[in-house]
Amino acid sequence: MRLHVILSKAVGAALSFLLASTFVLFAPLGxxxxxxxxxxxxxxxxxxxHGKLSVRGTQLVDxxxxxxxxxxxxxxxxxxxxxxxxxxxxxTLRDDWHANCVRLALYTAEYNGYCTGGDQAYLKGLVDKxxxxxxxxxxxxxxxxxxxxxxxxxxxxxxxxxxxxEMSQKYADHNNVIYEICNEPNGExxxxxxxxxxxEAVIPVIRENDPDAxxxxxxxxxxxxxxxxxxxxxxxPNLMYALHFYAGTHTQWLRDRAQQAIDRGLPIFVSEFGIxxxxxxGGININEANEWMKxxxxxxxxxxxxxxxNKAESASAIASWCTKTSNWEEWELAESGKWMRNQLRxxxxxxxxxxxxxxxxxxxxxxxxxxxEVTDRGLMKGYTGTKHFGPNDGIQRGQVAVIxxxxxxxxxxxxxxxxxxxxxxxxxxFSDNLDKKYYTSAxxxxxxxxIISGHRDTNLIDPYGLVTRQDLATMLYRYACDHxxxxxxxxxxxxxSHPDSGAISNYxxxxxxxxxxxxxxxxxxxxxxxxxxxPATRAEMxxxxxxxxxxxxxx
Length: 555
Prior knowledge:
Helix content is 35%, strand content 10%. It is of the alpha/beta class. The protein is elongated. Residues 1-43 have low confidence and may be disordered.
């Protein structure tokens, strides 16, 4: 990936890296999701759905000619973090994060780089391992020739030609392989004409073996100068141009530049980005990251986040203390990883959910019939394309909004009325990127009905935030009593019988007392603790929303 870290020539040799990830969906949380994007039992993987990709106008399209958006993670330099190149990691990205693509970053000049003393056979073996894993999982995969400290791709042009000749011969029959021939050309002396000349030498070598493969070409200034490519593009089909950004450094000016290039007909692929600054460190800028995602979705751009590793820097997806190389739980992710996972999981599903569920056997919520009932009543669903419900996953604010709106709409329809329609763009006063997400209409509804409020200190309504038990009680209390007019009378002293009643925040005490008194919420079987600060699970949500639904419908 691009070590944007080379912000100046003085630092040019010092590496820094970037890119971060994640956002979630709605159906099953904790391993959060809405209607996931994963392979189903019939083998409907991303590649099985879309087939071989090509470029039409400014759009990446699938075999049927429909626009497609690749979304996923880039590895860090594979020589640095080889353990993350494994099928388990990529399966986690596909099935839990809902990624459909991975990027394999092969550094040319840093840390035993391919062209500077690295073990080329070993590095090519890692590439093959990554391509094989992605292929087995039906994911798209980008082979990235990671130009960075070498600045100009012409420095190792001969090696690049031989590398891509070998790769394109080896993977010519693969319909999921994309070639990125120069990551981030940079430096005052590296011009678009140099990059273009390099590309004109390398692309024909790929075309000899793989005539229709999609190729991504970097642009000068760490793949920011897409405007230069737009005024003098290469003359090859199935070609895209790299745009890289880091939300803490690159703001509206770069979006404006990119939009102008797109308007001129340049097909852009965001093959690397992060939500921190361009050094790979510094603070996370969620507001700018959200603005970038609005831009990306508006133009249907594909995007890859930097980076899949546990390096101790802001751009890393995995917490630095976590040694697992697959099957990460949400709490084992770094802030960037949590964001990216949530982002990926918020994208529209491509595969319908499959029931019954295969991850609920022996679970209390299944044994009591809550999971079947909440599914039969259309209030909650499983992960799209899987038989997973995720009963122990945490529930998110956006998911709660969707579930409650579903029940409210069903009540309205049952009464013979037409449910109100809420916009698919953000109408709340908060700055989150809510547009055209699975939860957009529901969040607008929930805010309008004063069921869910935002965080004034951050100016965010936080649709991906995990909901504590006391917050869930508050939302359900507002839904039942404020919205549907149930009796809100409570006896706060009833909470004193629970050993942790003192841990309940003042704002939540009436709601907790109401939920307890109406059997919506109960204490633990062992000691009666209410655990108000603990994240609520999807299974708990199923039970509680059914209880509230029955109360509302009986009123």
